[in-house]
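[AMINO ACID CHAIN]
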Amino acid sequence: MKKFVIFLTLLLVAQVANAQLFTKEKVSNNIDNIDQKLLTWGYFLGFNQYDFKFEYNQDLEDILVDKSFGFHLGLIGDLRINDYMNLRLEPGVFFTTRNLRYDESYFNGAMVSDADLLREVKSTYVHLPLLLKISTKRINNFKPFIVGGISTALNLSSNQENPDDNSAGQFRMKKGTYFYEIGFGIDLYLLYFKFTPSIRGIFAINDEVVRDSDPNSPWTGNIAKMQTRGVFINFTFQ
């Protein structure tokens, strides 16, 4: 599914680029002055797929992560630095679900049920990135760019303060996460607005797991570090 969505996004970009760059007839420029404004505003929506990267204390079977596509939306504030660089704030709300699957070897031969081997991690993030966008020169009605920066996220679904842990079926995560981000996209200048498809990867910096009271817990005892990583597919309108 992820590959299919990414393929459609790249196909859309390729079709527009081909129409505007490689046709003999020059395409008239749309909304010529939008990139000369000091501040511009917009909104975005898109799809996301979150994963976890684990580091382990012992060499046991990996914890498997069942990923699914989530949805997100948010606002954009864009500050023009010069013709090729922009500073951007993109606050948004992101919804995602990940399932963790444990191997029976984590339980040292004890009797376990299917519920013991599965932990569902639902997350609702308020995500706030500060990004630097570096663009090429505009060619007719499109302009490729790369983007990167840092971000923080507040997990509204966090149960960090819950006194119950995995022994009561509660897999706990910290409320706050810090990321670095990098991606690429293309600005498409339409008749009345600028439309921007882009793809971005995010990588957590801090450890996010809240460990169980039992230091030998089969669910958290072998986790040295657990960090979110993910892919965003954004569609921006300015």
Observations:
- The chain has one domain: 2-237.
